[in-house]
Amino acid sequence: MVVKVEVFTSPSCPYCPMAIELVNEVKKDMGDQLEVEKIDISINQEKAVEYGLMAVPAIALNGVVKFVGAPSKEELVAAIKEETG
């Protein structure tokens, strides 16, 4: 099962590059199991509003926000594995 990972960022956010780097690193490890989309909330505010986001970075898995702030790699991998069953 492919897990859709959405990373919500903002250009002014000092922590967002770390979140993107983390997701890219996990994508390298998990390959085709992940579909990654990076969403800049300054461009796509509708999606952030739809998810009720008040802060970035935020990471959603399969349409559900799982993290606000950058999680550790272990936390992210564990959450992805939960999604895949």
Report on the architecture of this protein.
There is one protein chain. This protein is of the alpha+beta class. The protein has one domain: Glutaredoxin (3-Layer(aba) Sandwich), CATH 3.40.30.10. The chain is built from three helices and four strands. It has a four-stranded mixed beta sheet. A hairpin with a 2-residue loop joins β3 and β4. The protein is globular, with a radius of gyration of 12 Å. The termini are close together. The mean pLDDT is 95. InterPro entries: GLR_AS, Thio_glut, Thioredoxin-like_fold, Thioredoxin-like_sf, Thioredoxin_domain.
Tell me what portion of residues adopts beta-strand conformation. Answer: 25-35%
CATH superfamily: Glutaredoxin
Annotated CATH topology: Glutaredoxin
The whole-angstrom Rg is: 12 Å
Q: How much helical structure, as a percent, in the residues?
A: 25-40%
* Largest sheet: number of strands, sense, barrel closure: 4 strands, mixed
Structural class: alpha+beta
Reading side by side through the largest sheet, how are the strands ordered?
A: 2-1-3-4
- Tell me, rounded to a whole number, the average pLDDT: 95
> Given the C-alpha coordinates, what overall shape results?
globular
pLDDT < 50 runs, ≥5 residues: none
Helical stretch tally: 3
CATH top-level class: Alpha Beta
Distance between the termini: 9 Å
